[in-house]
Amino acid sequence: MCRLLGYTAPTATTFTDVVGANFDEFINLSTDHCDGWGIATTQNKKASLYKEPVAANKSAHLKEELATHKSNAALLHLRWATEGMAVNENNTHPFTYEDITFIHNGSISPFNCLDPLIDKKYLELAKGNTDSERYFLYLLTQIEKHGFIEGVKAGLTYIKANCAFSSINMMIINETTFMAACIYNQDKIPQKFKDDTDYYHLKYTKRDGQVVVASSGWNQDGWDEIPNGNVLVVGRVAGKEKLEVLNNLLI
Protein backbone atom coordinates (compact mmCIF):
# COMPACT_ATOMS: atom_id res chain seq x y z
CA MET A 1 0.00 0.00 0.00
CA CYS A 2 1.16 3.50 -0.67
CA ARG A 3 0.66 7.22 -0.25
CA LEU A 4 -0.18 9.47 -3.19
CA LEU A 5 0.28 13.19 -3.76
CA GLY A 6 -0.30 15.16 -6.93
CA TYR A 7 -0.94 18.70 -8.12
CA THR A 8 -1.67 20.83 -11.12
CA ALA A 9 -1.00 24.57 -11.19
CA PRO A 10 -1.20 27.48 -13.66
CA THR A 11 2.53 28.19 -13.32
CA ALA A 12 5.54 25.99 -12.66
CA THR A 13 6.01 25.18 -8.99
CA THR A 14 7.27 22.44 -6.66
CA PHE A 15 5.66 20.17 -4.07
CA THR A 16 7.40 22.12 -1.33
CA ASP A 17 5.76 25.35 -2.48
CA VAL A 18 2.35 24.06 -3.51
CA VAL A 19 1.74 21.99 -0.37
CA GLY A 20 3.31 24.36 2.12
CA ALA A 21 4.12 23.98 5.78
CA ASN A 22 2.69 20.48 6.20
CA PHE A 23 4.66 18.90 3.36
CA ASP A 24 7.20 17.39 5.75
CA GLU A 25 4.32 15.55 7.45
CA PHE A 26 3.51 13.86 4.16
CA ILE A 27 7.15 12.88 3.60
CA ASN A 28 7.27 11.42 7.11
CA LEU A 29 4.59 8.91 6.07
CA SER A 30 7.53 7.13 4.43
CA THR A 31 8.47 5.87 7.89
CA ASP A 32 5.84 3.18 7.24
CA HIS A 33 5.58 3.51 3.45
CA CYS A 34 9.28 2.90 3.19
CA ASP A 35 9.87 0.67 0.14
CA GLY A 36 10.57 3.38 -2.38
CA TRP A 37 9.63 6.82 -3.57
CA GLY A 38 9.38 8.61 -6.87
CA ILE A 39 8.44 11.87 -8.53
CA ALA A 40 7.23 12.51 -12.09
CA THR A 41 6.32 15.62 -14.01
CA THR A 42 4.85 16.06 -17.46
CA GLN A 43 5.62 19.08 -19.59
CA ASN A 44 6.26 19.82 -23.24
CA LYS A 45 4.68 16.47 -24.19
CA LYS A 46 7.28 14.50 -22.24
CA ALA A 47 7.42 12.98 -18.76
CA SER A 48 10.39 13.49 -16.45
CA LEU A 49 10.93 10.79 -13.82
CA TYR A 50 13.08 10.08 -10.79
CA LYS A 51 12.60 7.15 -8.41
CA GLU A 52 14.58 4.99 -6.04
CA PRO A 53 13.76 1.95 -3.86
CA VAL A 54 14.49 3.60 -0.51
CA ALA A 55 12.35 5.46 2.00
CA ALA A 56 11.83 9.08 1.00
CA ASN A 57 12.78 10.36 4.45
CA LYS A 58 16.10 8.50 4.17
CA SER A 59 16.92 9.52 0.61
CA ALA A 60 20.01 11.62 0.02
CA HIS A 61 18.45 12.88 -3.22
CA LEU A 62 14.95 13.89 -2.06
CA LYS A 63 15.46 17.65 -1.64
CA GLU A 64 17.44 17.99 -4.85
CA GLU A 65 14.91 16.08 -6.94
CA LEU A 66 11.95 17.94 -5.46
CA ALA A 67 13.61 21.23 -6.39
CA THR A 68 14.64 19.99 -9.85
CA HIS A 69 11.16 18.76 -10.79
CA LYS A 70 9.56 22.19 -11.00
CA SER A 71 6.49 21.93 -13.18
CA ASN A 72 2.84 22.83 -13.77
CA ALA A 73 1.88 19.30 -12.72
CA ALA A 74 3.55 16.49 -10.80
CA LEU A 75 3.01 13.21 -8.96
CA LEU A 76 4.79 11.98 -5.84
CA HIS A 77 4.56 8.40 -4.55
CA LEU A 78 5.60 6.70 -1.31
CA ARG A 79 5.63 2.93 -1.70
CA TRP A 80 4.80 0.25 0.82
CA ALA A 81 5.22 -2.92 -1.22
CA THR A 82 2.43 -5.46 -1.42
CA GLU A 83 3.48 -8.68 0.28
CA GLY A 84 5.50 -10.81 -2.13
CA MET A 85 6.40 -7.92 -4.43
CA ALA A 86 10.12 -7.14 -4.77
CA VAL A 87 11.53 -3.86 -3.54
CA ASN A 88 13.47 -2.54 -6.52
CA GLU A 89 13.50 0.38 -8.92
CA ASN A 90 11.39 -1.33 -11.58
CA ASN A 91 8.55 -1.84 -9.11
CA THR A 92 8.78 1.70 -7.75
CA HIS A 93 6.20 4.29 -8.85
CA PRO A 94 5.54 6.51 -10.76
CA PHE A 95 5.20 4.78 -14.10
CA THR A 96 5.46 6.85 -17.27
CA TYR A 97 4.80 6.60 -21.00
CA GLU A 98 5.41 9.52 -23.35
CA ASP A 99 3.69 12.46 -21.57
CA ILE A 100 1.59 10.29 -19.23
CA THR A 101 2.50 9.72 -15.57
CA PHE A 102 0.69 7.38 -13.12
CA ILE A 103 0.69 6.32 -9.45
CA HIS A 104 -1.47 3.80 -7.56
CA ASN A 105 -2.36 2.89 -3.99
CA GLY A 106 -3.80 -0.55 -3.28
CA SER A 107 -3.66 -4.00 -4.80
CA ILE A 108 -5.37 -5.86 -7.61
CA SER A 109 -5.18 -9.64 -7.46
CA PRO A 110 -3.82 -11.68 -8.98
CA PHE A 111 -1.19 -9.15 -10.04
CA ASN A 112 -1.40 -10.17 -13.73
CA CYS A 113 -5.17 -10.54 -14.06
CA LEU A 114 -5.31 -7.66 -16.56
CA ASP A 115 -2.62 -9.09 -18.85
CA PRO A 116 -5.05 -10.62 -21.40
CA LEU A 117 -6.67 -7.17 -21.80
CA ILE A 118 -3.46 -5.19 -22.29
CA ASP A 119 -2.39 -4.47 -25.85
CA LYS A 120 0.73 -6.51 -26.61
CA LYS A 121 2.79 -3.44 -27.43
CA TYR A 122 2.09 -2.02 -23.97
CA LEU A 123 2.50 -5.30 -22.10
CA GLU A 124 5.96 -5.61 -23.63
CA LEU A 125 6.88 -2.36 -21.86
CA ALA A 126 6.50 -3.96 -18.42
CA LYS A 127 9.74 -3.79 -16.46
CA GLY A 128 8.54 -5.04 -13.06
CA ASN A 129 6.09 -7.55 -11.68
CA THR A 130 3.50 -5.38 -9.93
CA ASP A 131 -0.23 -5.14 -10.36
CA SER A 132 0.23 -1.35 -10.38
CA GLU A 133 2.33 -1.36 -13.54
CA ARG A 134 -0.20 -3.67 -15.23
CA TYR A 135 -2.97 -1.31 -14.11
CA PHE A 136 -1.16 1.53 -15.87
CA LEU A 137 -0.56 -0.47 -19.05
CA TYR A 138 -4.23 -1.45 -19.13
CA LEU A 139 -5.22 2.22 -18.85
CA LEU A 140 -2.87 3.03 -21.73
CA THR A 141 -4.69 0.40 -23.80
CA GLN A 142 -8.03 2.02 -23.01
CA ILE A 143 -6.70 5.53 -23.61
CA GLU A 144 -5.60 4.53 -27.10
CA LYS A 145 -9.13 3.25 -27.81
CA HIS A 146 -11.20 6.01 -26.24
CA GLY A 147 -9.03 9.06 -25.61
CA PHE A 148 -7.50 10.12 -22.31
CA ILE A 149 -10.45 10.94 -20.05
CA GLU A 150 -12.90 8.39 -21.43
CA GLY A 151 -10.20 5.73 -21.66
CA VAL A 152 -9.25 6.14 -18.00
CA LYS A 153 -12.89 6.03 -16.98
CA ALA A 154 -13.51 2.92 -19.10
CA GLY A 155 -10.54 1.20 -17.49
CA LEU A 156 -11.67 2.11 -13.99
CA THR A 157 -15.19 0.92 -14.72
CA TYR A 158 -13.98 -2.48 -15.89
CA ILE A 159 -11.61 -3.05 -12.96
CA LYS A 160 -14.22 -1.95 -10.44
CA ALA A 161 -16.77 -4.38 -11.86
CA ASN A 162 -14.57 -7.36 -12.65
CA CYS A 163 -11.43 -7.50 -10.50
CA ALA A 164 -10.61 -8.31 -6.89
CA PHE A 165 -8.94 -5.32 -5.28
CA SER A 166 -8.36 -3.56 -2.01
CA SER A 167 -8.06 -0.14 -3.63
CA ILE A 168 -7.61 1.19 -7.14
CA ASN A 169 -6.97 4.73 -5.97
CA MET A 170 -4.79 6.36 -8.57
CA MET A 171 -3.60 9.62 -10.10
CA ILE A 172 -2.75 10.07 -13.75
CA ILE A 173 -1.61 13.14 -15.69
CA ASN A 174 -1.00 13.97 -19.32
CA GLU A 175 -0.30 17.26 -21.07
CA THR A 176 -3.89 18.51 -20.74
CA THR A 177 -5.56 16.68 -17.84
CA PHE A 178 -5.07 15.60 -14.22
CA MET A 179 -7.31 12.79 -12.93
CA ALA A 180 -7.54 11.24 -9.46
CA ALA A 181 -9.75 8.23 -8.71
CA CYS A 182 -10.89 7.20 -5.25
CA ILE A 183 -12.24 3.64 -5.44
CA TYR A 184 -11.65 1.23 -2.57
CA ASN A 185 -13.08 -1.53 -0.39
CA GLN A 186 -13.30 -0.32 3.19
CA ASP A 187 -13.05 -3.84 4.61
CA LYS A 188 -9.62 -4.34 3.03
CA ILE A 189 -7.64 -1.77 4.96
CA PRO A 190 -4.23 -3.29 5.82
CA GLN A 191 -4.08 -4.84 9.28
CA LYS A 192 -1.35 -2.41 10.32
CA PHE A 193 -3.74 0.51 9.74
CA LYS A 194 -7.05 -1.17 10.64
CA ASP A 195 -7.87 1.57 13.15
CA ASP A 196 -7.33 4.31 10.54
CA THR A 197 -10.75 4.15 8.93
CA ASP A 198 -9.77 6.92 6.51
CA TYR A 199 -6.71 5.03 5.24
CA TYR A 200 -7.92 4.89 1.62
CA HIS A 201 -9.44 8.38 1.59
CA LEU A 202 -8.30 10.93 -0.96
CA LYS A 203 -8.73 14.65 -0.35
CA TYR A 204 -8.11 17.74 -2.44
CA THR A 205 -7.68 21.46 -1.97
CA LYS A 206 -7.90 24.42 -4.36
CA ARG A 207 -6.12 27.76 -4.19
CA ASP A 208 -5.13 30.35 -6.78
CA GLY A 209 -5.78 27.95 -9.65
CA GLN A 210 -3.82 25.15 -8.00
CA VAL A 211 -5.41 21.78 -7.25
CA VAL A 212 -3.61 19.43 -4.86
CA VAL A 213 -4.77 15.85 -4.14
CA ALA A 214 -3.37 13.49 -1.52
CA SER A 215 -3.81 10.33 0.50
CA SER A 216 -4.62 10.57 4.21
CA GLY A 217 -2.44 10.26 7.30
CA TRP A 218 -1.25 13.85 7.70
CA ASN A 219 -2.69 17.31 8.34
CA GLN A 220 -5.28 18.03 5.64
CA ASP A 221 -7.47 20.44 7.61
CA GLY A 222 -9.86 22.28 5.32
CA TRP A 223 -9.42 19.89 2.39
CA ASP A 224 -12.44 18.40 0.58
CA GLU A 225 -12.90 14.65 0.25
CA ILE A 226 -13.22 12.74 -3.02
CA PRO A 227 -16.03 10.31 -2.14
CA ASN A 228 -15.51 6.60 -2.68
CA GLY A 229 -16.43 5.70 -6.24
CA ASN A 230 -15.64 9.15 -7.62
CA VAL A 231 -13.12 10.56 -10.06
CA LEU A 232 -11.74 14.09 -9.92
CA VAL A 233 -11.00 15.50 -13.38
CA VAL A 234 -9.00 18.72 -13.70
CA GLY A 235 -8.40 20.44 -17.02
CA ARG A 236 -4.79 21.64 -16.89
CA VAL A 237 -5.40 24.23 -19.60
CA ALA A 238 -8.65 25.73 -18.32
CA GLY A 239 -7.92 25.01 -14.68
CA LYS A 240 -11.44 23.76 -14.11
CA GLU A 241 -12.16 20.74 -11.93
CA LYS A 242 -15.18 18.47 -11.61
CA LEU A 243 -16.09 15.40 -9.61
CA GLU A 244 -17.69 12.50 -11.46
CA VAL A 245 -19.39 9.50 -9.88
CA LEU A 246 -18.13 6.40 -11.65
CA ASN A 247 -21.14 4.45 -12.97
CA ASN A 248 -23.27 6.50 -10.55
CA LEU A 249 -22.52 3.83 -7.94
CA LEU A 250 -20.54 3.77 -4.73
CA ILE A 251 -18.83 0.56 -3.63
Automatic annotation (TrEMBL):
UniProt-listed InterPro entries: EgtC-like, GATase_2_dom, Ntn_hydrolases_N
Domain called Glutamine amidotransferase type-2: residue spans: 2-251
Source organism superkingdom: Bacteria
Sorted UniProt keywords: Glutamine amidotransferase, Transferase
SUPFAM superfamilies, A to Z: N-terminal nucleophile aminohydrolases (Ntn hydrolases)
Entry's Gene Ontology molecular function annotations: transferase activity
PANTHER family registered for this protein in UniProt: GLUTAMINE AMIDOTRANSFERASE, GLUTAMINE AMIDOTRANSFERASE YAFJ-RELATED
Name listed for the protein in its UniProt record: Class II glutamine amidotransferase
Lineage, opening ranks: Bacteria, Bacillati, Actinomycetota, Actinomycetes, Candidatus Nanopelagicales
